[in-house]
Design goal:
The protein is built from 14 helices and 25 strands.
Amino acid sequence: MDSFLFHNLESAVCIACFTLFYFIFLRKEHCFGINRLFLLLSMTFAVVIPLLNIQLTGHSSVSTASPGILDASFQQVSSLKENIIHLNPVVIGESSNHLTFSLIHILSILYLTGLAIHLMLFVWRLIRLLNRISKSEKIRDGRHCFVIIPESDSQICSFFHFIFIPQKHLNQDEFKPVVDHEKAHATALHSLDLMITEMVIVVQWFNPLAYLLRKAMVENHEFQVDREVVRSQRNKINYLQSILNQWVNHHYFKLTSAFSHSLSKKRILMLTKRKNNPLVSKAKLLAAIPLFMLLFFFFACSENSGNQTMQKEKKEAIAFHQVTQENIGKEIPESLYQSYHQKLGQKGEQVLFELYSEFEGKEYPQAIVRMEKNNMYGIHLYNCGEGRTTSYIEITDTSGNSLGTQPDPNWVGWQEEKSFYLDLGMMETAPYQVTIKDSKNRSNKVVLVMTRATSLDTVGRGKNDVYLKPDQMPVYNGNGSLADFREDVMKNISYPSEAKEKQIDGMVYVKFVVNEQGTIEDKEIMTGAHPLLNQAALEGLDGLPGWQPGMVEGKPVKTQFTIPVVFRL
């Protein structure tokens, strides 16, 4: 729905530009046929062009997730104290979290209501018009058909090849110019223009310039037909007299072309006005070309949202190699192998596979792994090459949606580690694609280790032990779930006004402990953003209902949690 609203706003901008251009440069010109084409193209352009999405850069084969909610699925861990029970993120938007409907929802409802009303009015007018045609007496006249209307309704108008006229005026000489006028409308298919214009009004009902564009269309129709009729009759005086006779009669059906539809004074002035210099008129029309081009590139073209640096040239996926006893000490340093095995063993993580690869330039290593739901996986990347590297992990699902990370230009040194924990509690068991990339195409030699982190226990075993997974997990607010806790935190946090004014957003990881009495203590920013956001995230845990504490061997214990809070403008 959001994209539909944005499309209509972009269309409104296009209509505004074209309408203003027409009234400033073209309205007083005598090139009525070209003016008609300009108005039709303007409406079509305004509706269609914002729907296009022409990429100006190379196509990205894998979409890269922006920092935010998807990145909350990963948790960087550098020591045992940072191992956590991972909660889904709380997303704090710019609007108030206490409102059930956001501003975009309210605008959507208002827009759809107006759209429905204007569409019903359009359909009602069309049905009324067709009903009048079907129930009235009709007289054929070549390509046209006269629809006889009551004597009380003296307005003569046309709808496609149907001309509405009272019986008494059908054969009167004084009304012959009026009938010829309506026949010219029918021959030129001006009713089709009006139908298109009315449909634009339906979707752009909120845009006052759309109604001005309709007025311009109807006015140009009258100027065009007046000129054609005067040329055919070659009696401008009689025709001008007919316009004056119809001056006060303004009743007409919507969707029809009527002889007295537009202002008669303007029509008389246009018929008696001396034509403008044709070269000046053509120059004004040529000035519309840059306007069309500017709006086309502004609304129809966009940059590829993928990683442009990585997509400057097409890269080729290569396979990882399995780490074996034979290549330890040869392909990868033995000290590195022993170091990460020792660290992972201390964390209680089960090594699932170990892979290594050497790549640079147009190549990147890739592997398909199967991960099962309700498990937490550790993905560890070690650099065993020489010098600086900017390689990073990217994980995608079977649909190509990225669950991975952004490039880190600051990863420097030998045997440095990048570790991420992926909690598949809310995701499906499926094969996932793990790719190692380097945003600068540097030479890399890396080891990729994947673990199952299922044996996380406690931070310590003293009097003040803090457990990560006690025998019985804490229960929020008596019988509430962690989802209820997240919802209450979301309602309890307000986006800092100063942060909104300065356009500050980001993600904050808050670590906290539920103690033996079921209250929150030891709140701490684990990974921070701006100080304003950090403070708001900490305050979001204040004043919430209590917990039933976690239990180990029948006794209440402290349990540690962390929760990501995403501040997004």
